Amino acid sequence: MKTFLLVITIWGFTAEKEWVYVGNNIVLDVLMPIEECDAMARNWVWRENNENYKFIVHCEEAILPAEPEEKKETSL
Asked: pLDDT of 12-35, one tens digit each?
């Protein structure tokens, strides 16, 4: 089953009138199914008082490390 993380990225508005990623993000370190993550992203509330910056809330699939294989004991 795929699991997801809620990610909030921060974007800035340039003099060229383009939104660009400023290199900052916040990750909620809670694994969840996509339905739960989407619901949380849709219901996220904040107040943006600066027209030159914005937050984008989205879900990213969590890439987890592979589980190590169990070592089999051998007898001599």
From this structure: 999 999 999 999 899 999 999 999
Going by C-beta distance under 8 Å and a sequence separation of 6 or more, which residues neighbour residue 31?
3, 4, 5, 62
What one-character-per-residue DSSP string does the chain give? Answer: ---EEEEEEEEEE-TTS-EEEEEEEEEEEEEE-HHHHHHHHHH-------TTEEEEEEEEE--PPPPPPPPPP---
Cα(74)–Cα(18) distance, rounded to whole angstroms? 62
Distance (Å, rounded) from C-alpha 67 to C-alpha 69?
Answer: 6
**How deeply is 6 buried, as exposed, middle or buried, from its count of CB atoms within 10 A (0-12, 13-18, 19+)?**
buried
Take residue 24 and report the two structure tokens written for it. 């900052």
